[in-house]
Design brief:
The protein has three helices and two strands. It is mainly α.
């Protein structure tokens, strides 16, 4: 049953905007800052946060590549 949850989470993550992912990262950080959080839960939150950060970096990279275009001489320039 856990695999079904993971699949659902992955599907939902791909449909989220960059801003939504940043909000989730902020919430994750807030939860990790709780002094009463068990170590195992903190580690799971850390893994989730790192995964979201990678997704955000990938999304930013895609946008940056879309902003660049080739000019008539074949050189890259900002859009």
């Amino acid at each position: 049953m856990k695999k079904e949850t993971e699949k659902t989470d992955n599907t939902e993550e791909k449909g989220r905007s960059l801003e939504e992912n940043f909000e989730i990262i902020e919430d994750t950080i807030d939860r990790m800052e709780d002094e009463d959080i068990p170590l195992e839960e903190a580690f799971k939150l850390y893994q989730k946060g790192m995964k979201l950060l990678k997704e955000c970096n990938d999304a930013i990279d895609r946008v940056e590549k879309q902003v660049l275009k080739l000019n008539a001489e074949g050189e890259l320039e900002e859009f």
